[in-house]
Amino acid sequence: MQVFKTVKEIQIYFINSKPKSIGFVPTMGALHVGHISLINVSKKQNNITVCSIFVNPKQFNNPEDLIKYPRNIDADLEKLANANCDVVFVPSVEEMYPNKIEKEYNFGILSTVMEGEHRPGHFNGVAIVIERLFDIIKPNKAYFGEKDFQQLSVIKELVKQLKLPIKIIGCPIIREDNGLAMSSRNERLTKIEHNAASEINKALKYVSQNKNNYSVLELKKYFNNYLSKNKLLTTEYFEIADGNSLTPINHWNETEYLIAFTAVMVGGVRLIDNMTIIN
Fold first, then answer.
1. I need a labelling partner for 145 at 20 to 30 A (CA). Which of 41, 127, 151, 162 fits?
2. Which domain holds residue 220?
3. 134, 14: one domain
């Protein structure tokens, strides 16, 4: 496994190795089984798989969240080596952003609802770092987990707007035994908080399986009421939206492709999750 810290080093590597296809998995580190599942899919589909580890300051609207974000580069590199990842790119902030970038993107409703509403500037920061990484790595395919479904939608739109020859592939959410969606932020949960967080999956499952029994409004009330029974859980938002446009809906007949989205504070840790609603 090759590890590079500078743009020049990794680009020289690509020039010399001349890979037929590059699969790319961008991450912020604190790797878990979900990340490794992306590496595994990429390895099956490409000659070379590249993983980047970079905690992007531009996508944190909360400075405290950036400071607390878990970091463990040694453990991450060990996991990637065990997964037979070919190349790891570990740049510094100065390497990623040698010049000031103030680019503003317009993704329409994709970046203004849900996460976009509650984390102003977040998706603009995501777009900046992804465009920069795509320019450095020049992958044929890039892999993202569907836990961050709204982010995935924004990145697909970014690639479309920039007319980049990159196929964006969403991979299924990997869950822990108790149903909690795997996330780097889970490391910050206490044991009690971790157990409480499993209620998010239970509530999402109930919503996803009861479209034919209740209205949209009734299920939204159910979700919020169910989680409010646990003092460790505070729902920031819960929406049922069109899976293509991400437009929140009020009635079932507005679209056939429905996804339930939520962000929940578990103690002091903010977790997001989503689940497709069964027809």
1. 162
2. 184-276
3. yes
